[in-house]
Amino acid sequence: MVENLKVVSATTFKPENAEYSKPKITLFHCINAISSLTDLVNLNCDITEIQMPCSSMTREVFLLRAFEAGADAVIVIVCPKGTCRYIEGNIRAGKRVARMKKLLDEIGLDGRRLEIFYIPQGDQTALNDAIYQITDNLAALRSNPTA
Amino acid sequence: MIVGEQKPLAEIKDKVSSYSKLLILGCGTCVKTCFAGGEDEVAILASALRLSFRKDDINIKIEELTIERQCEDEFIKEAATAVGRNDAVLSLACGAGVQMIANRFARSPVLPGVNTTFIGVLEKQGLFTEKCLGCGNCMLDIFVGICPISRCSKKLFNGPCGGSQNGKCEVNAEIDCAWQLIIDRSKSFGQMDRLITYIPPKDWRSSQAGGPRKLVREDHII
User: Fold this and answer.
1) Contact flag B50-A108 (C-beta cutoff 8 Å)
2) ipTM of the complex
């Protein structure tokens, strides 16, 4: 399954003169929800993009390993409810994210570091808002203490 | 299948914190099916423990391995090398698997990571229900395929207690009254008359009352 996930270098999404201390965000997304991150602008964070053929590929261990790899936060972008091309991928993703948020609380990392957003295809404003929301969460949580 | 549930992270962390090299050993049969101890759950637990210990600035090396079955020596052998290079084994098998690992590897501390709960079935995706107590003397023919020992809260053999309402048990309204099910099914088969026969008290020696049980199949012993 891992082979189906396409990892894209995030460096191109760093704003000019980005500082090393800027939040690191790993962004998992269904390719049907977002085709590209190239329209994201004015990001004050360092994003690692992981493309999935469907949000049902969101597996719990990948979310945790993103934190192990140093992410300060993880975002999962899926299609709005009722619009998944494979019927229930986004529902499964939602349940897995909810489980991992609880586990992050148990670990002591805080579940607010992980969020799922249901975004219509091509809605760049909603995507930007999602990233602003997670960076807002991080303002209170600060950087990943395990990194 | 045997149904189990992974222990809370805090309890597991407390059990393993005194070891510096830990093997999390999964079992690929029953507990995999009920999402308690298969390969995926081993990976999730290992990752969660690594993050949790790293957060506390504790250095612990965690290795992951899942074998087909922990209740069979033939498969356990595959874990020998990994067990040997770690200080302890956290087994995500049922209680039988944990004991089998402990028996095989006398020098390694073996810790349970799963609470074994019951013999049951996958009722629907994500829902497991108890169906058998392993009493050692199956009477399902008398009760048209519905076991009053495992499914009646009072384990009654001779008809309902009278406390059920709308087919639900008075002990817990989420439980179907086993005797309601037995009667409904007997009616559908036209076999209500069979329920008139008095069932005497069960001889529980074939169950756990007779001490640890053993099954010998001479035809398979060489």
Assistant:
1) no
2) 0.89
Let me know whether B114 and B146 are in one domain. Answer: no
Chain A residue numbers with beta carbons less than 8 Å from the beta carbon of B56 are 108
The rounded Cα A129 to chain-centroid distance in angstroms is 13
A67 contacts on B by Cβ (under 8 Å): 51
Among candidate residues B57, B90, B118, the one where a domain is terminated: B118
**A1 — pLDDT class (breaks 50, 70, 90):** very low
Question: How many other β-carbons are positioned within 10 Å of the β-carbon of residue B137?
Answer: 11
First and final CA of chain B: distance in angstroms? 28
Q: Say if B58 is an interface residue toward chain A (CB within 8 Å).
A: no
Determine whether the interchain pair A146/B54 forms a contact, defined as Cβ–Cβ distance below 8 Å: yes
Does one domain contain both B108 and B176? no
pTM to 2 decimal places: 0.90
Cβ-based contacts of B6 with chain A (< 8 Å): none
Mutation target to probe the A interface, by most A beta carbons within 10 A, among B54, B66, B125 is: B54
Calculate how close chain B gets to A20, using CA atoms only, in Å.
21
Task: Kindly report, residue by residue over B66-97, the tens digit of the pLDDT.
Answer: 999 999 999 999 999 999 999 999 999 999 99
Residue B220 domain-assigned? Answer: no
Contact A61 B50 (CB under 8 A): no
Question: From CA A114, how far away is CA A100, in angstroms rounded?
Answer: 8
CATH number for position A118: 3.40.50
Token pair 């020992």 is found at: B149
Return the residue of B nearest to A66 by Cα. Answer: B47
Query: Do B111 and B176 share a domain, yes or no?
Result: no
| DSSP-assigned beta bridge partners for residue A76 | A28, A116
Domain holding A73, by residue range, is 2-141
The number of folded domains in chain B is: 2
C-beta separation of A72 from A113 below 8 A: yes
